[in-house]
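Let us begin with a simple case.
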Amino acid sequence: MTAELSAADCEQLAARGIDAREAERQLRLLREPPTPPRLLRPCTVGDGIRRLDEAEQKALREIWQSDGAGADAVKLVPASGAASRMFGPLLALRDEEPFPGGAELSRRAAAGDAGARDLERLWRELPRFPFFDELAAVCAARGAPLSELRERRDGRRLLRLLLGEDGLALASRPKGLIPFHHYRDRGGSRTAAEEHLWEGAASLADEEGVARFHFTVGSEARDQFAAELAEASDRLLRARGVVAEVGFSMQGPSTDTLAITPNGEPFRDDDGSLLLRPSGHGALLDNLGALEARWVLLKNIDNVQPERAHELVAHWQEVLGGLLVRLALEARDHRPLRVCGVVENRGEPGGGPFWVERGPGEVSAQIVERAELGMTPDPAQEAVFASSTHFNPVQIAVALRDVLGERYDLRRYVDERAVFIARKSHHGRELLALERPGLWNGAMADWNTVFVEVPAETFAPVKTVFDLLRPEHQP
């Protein structure tokens, strides 16, 4: 117990597996954030980024295939994110009281109102979404045929049936369980999670036709994912003869972090207890380290494309994996290794590869995200960040064991200074939240890192529902 943490606080923390000293460390970080990393220059082709010719690509794929690396590899997909962010403006509009009428919606859309503009686009392009047939079925079952809703432009009913619990409940699903792609010739759609099985089968299947996958999910959604992927695995087996072995894990409660008020006090919930929040994807480091595999192909849940792109994606997964295997066998120092695919920067939100000074004379190539520059970044550092030529699509191959097969202790290679502090709110009250060093940022800061340019066509993130209308996601 400390001066600002009561006995009840310490008991609450202990129930999550959080030591009081760790809680004090987090409060210090929130009040006195570490100095951000100093960006020297972006990594570019020939200066931190490798560009591989066709002969090199072929040789690396052969290493991955001939060494049977797929038999000791797993595809890791962080999938705990909620889909609610995909529908943000539409959710805000749905909850308005009273719901605006047609003329008011048109006026607001013309004035640039995000919710009204998104609803107009939703009406216009609804048949192009991969969940259209599912929505039509649920509308019919609720006595509100979709054709009639569209004719009457009943926006409130549409949004309730699309997003709410009395309909498809898309806004309360995990992003991984949102339909991403529709296949007309098969009469159905695939969720993002299922598409990852089909995409990974090509580069992961071993000689016995087994491909291994691991999804990190929210504890409340584990059963939903298990049911969805059991059916998806069965479809994959019937169509391709590939056996998908799927595992799951949850972010540990001991990785949750505290928050503070704008005045620097520990943020407390309405009942007086400490607010403990999930601490970002950096909390998944233990999940990664616990995998029973030597090689891991890491990819975000929302970066997956329809079948027509799987051959290209598999090609580059094997190139990155082959380079990982070759470098791991040549390694002389005892540090974990990662090979990161990067694409040309086309303005997507997120981070990229930079040469970073992390201490006097300590320069290394790192993935840096905008949030790492701090809440009030230096204009010169902003300019360096803006000059980035490449973007991190989270297409990463990592080695979890050394040349002798010994498992790395991944916690030894974290830069604990590389935390994120973000302004958030809870029940309408402002707070400062602490996120752990990101999984592919500070959590891997002391890894051996290699950046490889991969085609932009391998990258198709879905951040809003309208990203599903981009050509790369359409049939």
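The second case is a distinct protein. As before, the sequence precedes its structure tokens.
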Amino acid sequence: MSGKIRFLGLVTLMGLLGTLLLFGVSGWAQKAKPPQPPPPPPADPAIAFRATGSGTNLMVMNADGSNQRILLNGTKGTNVISCSPNWSPDGNRIAFYSDIWGSGIYIINKDGTGLLKVIAMHEGGTYGAGNPHWSPDGLRIIYSDSLGPGLNEDIYLVDAVANAGSRINLTNSPGAEFYPSWGPDGLRLAANVDAGPIILFNLLEPDGTHDWMAVPVQNLTESGPFADELAATPEWARFSDKIVVSAADDIWVIDFTDPGNLTYRNLTQTLDIRERNPCWSPLDTQIVYDRASCIYVMHADGSNVTRIAAPNPKSLFLSEPDWRRNL
């Protein structure tokens, strides 16, 4: 009897030892398992755009339309308008029009921090929204504004700092100049004039006899396919004398490398579809634009048209894409 008890005790002891070993091995195996790497950070946003629903959101996304994020929310009962985004040359900030703290030109960091107001705008202009555009050195911004309701716009220059306080009228004409685009050489501008032509301007720096001023030098749309059409929102290529524009509801490229021999190319040639607000990619190899409430990209020759962003119940209309130009 005592031998049987000793045998059962030995069995029990061995069972307990096996259980302890089993748990020990299991715990060791779990500890030895390599840790999982943290998820990769989201890619730097490439495209800024406007999303309109009950209000408007200023948004960013990757070049393929992924990782869409709100930088400035105007749809949570605030009815804030934020539009016409334009990336700074270093790709860290975005200039845009908003009325969040009163109508004006604003700057925000690409992560949604650092919102600041550059300068107040008059309201009630013919074309409105300011359409700000950075200088190639990132120190200044040009935009369009009127002097009051019902008056025509001029193009203004302002330092890209908080509460800049003063602005310089570059055009100062009786007509309307709007949708300005700063050339990559920093010495020229392109802009719409009087709801029709696109004009090239030479930008003259102060020399003791005058302040900053823009002098018109060439009409890019007085002849050819745009003679009777509004060609709007010119955007200068980074590496050549070409601008991409919206005209007759298509996307066109005007090549003025040879000023005496302008060439025009219709990239989209769609019927009854409105395509607007084109912008070049960093290497001028692609163009982003809005079409039928969505955002599309295509190759610079008009091929490989791809929709990258579509509206949802909260964002009914996507528009005004601007592609970050730095690599």
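The radius of gyration is 29 Å. The chain has one helix and 24 strands.
Keep these points in mind for the review questions at the end of the chapter.
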